[in-house]
Structure formats: structure tokens, C-alpha cells
Design goal:
By secondary structure, the chain is an alpha+beta fold. It is built from 2 helices and 5 strands, in the order αβββαββ. It binds guanosine-5'-monophosphate and zinc ion. The site of zinc ion has 5 residues, from helix 1.
Length: 112
């Protein structure tokens, strides 16, 4: 499948990996927007948040557990943001569900 993040998960494109298990893969964003900026993706190809159903939604809870663990390990304390962009209007540029985790600076709200 011609998907950038599937290729990263498969090791066909190098990445700065943080964590991996049977269900998900975490790696640093190539263009960090905060002192800590990593992505967590399901290994299964799900196009985006609009494709989550009762059948596949278990991965979302799993990913949030991984995020809680990784932010602790990275010393983010209790201050971080999790974002998933869905669709071009929301800024999604890679069509494989991913959760951005941003930390290490004060983050404005609302986003642009
Ligand atoms: P989106 O814009 O879809 O919400 O987020 C896609 C993210 O993937 C962007 O933050 C972008 O910097 C990151 N990205 C794009 N290509 C690569 C890559 O080849 N490697 C890594 N590590 N991150 C990438
Ligand atoms: Zn994919």
C-alpha cells in the first residue's frame, strides 16, 4: 500500500522510533512543533478518525495508554496535548490515523 506511515511501520522508511508493540508504533515527528513532538499510529491502516468504528476503536484506548506511559518516561509531567487532524480542512496531510503528542512548551488555544 502506498502509505508513508505504513512504510515507516514496516521499516521501509527510517524513523526515530520511540516505542513499538503489536498494535501501535510511536516515532518522533520529522518537523517538530514543540520541544517534544511525537506521533503514535496504529499498525493497522486506518485512514483517519472518521474511519473509527465499534469494531476498531479499541486501538484508540490502547494508544492513549501508550501516550500516558511515554509522556511520563519523557518527563513531560502532566502537561501535554494530543491531537488528531482529520481531513485536509483540519490539516491532515498523511492518510493514516495518527495522534500527535506535543509537550515541553506552553500551547495556545484555540488552534489556528
Ligand atoms: P498531519 O499533518 O497529517 O496531522 O501530520 C502529519 C505529520 O507527519 C506532520 O507533523 C509531519 O511533520 C509528519 N511527517 C511527514 N512525513 C514524515 C516522515 O517521513 N517522517 C516523520 N517522522 N514524520 C513525518
Ligand atoms: Zn498506512
Amino acid at each position: 500500500m502506498d502509505c508513508l506511515f505504513c512504510k515507516i511501520i514496516a521499516g521501509e522508511i527510517p524513523s526515530n522510533k520511540l516505542y513499538e508493540d503489536q498494535q501501535c508504533y510511536a516515532f518522533y515527528d520529522i518537523d517538530p512543533q514543540a520541544p517534544v513532538h511525537f506521533l503514535v499510529v496504529p499498525k493497522a491502516h486506518i485512514t483517519g478518525a472518521n474511519q473509527i468504528t465499534d469494531e476498531n476503536s479499541g486501538i484508540v484506548g490502547h494508544i492513549f495508554g501508550v501516550i500516558a506511559k511515554l509522556t511520563k518516561e519523557l518527563g513531560c509531567g502532566d502537561d501535554f496535548r494530543v491531537v488528531t487532524n482529520c481531513g485536509p480542512m483540519a490539516g491532515q496531510t498523511v492518510g493514516h490515523l495518527h495522534f500527535h503528542v506535543l509537550a515541553g512548551r506552553s500551547l495556545a488555544w484555540p488552534p489556528g
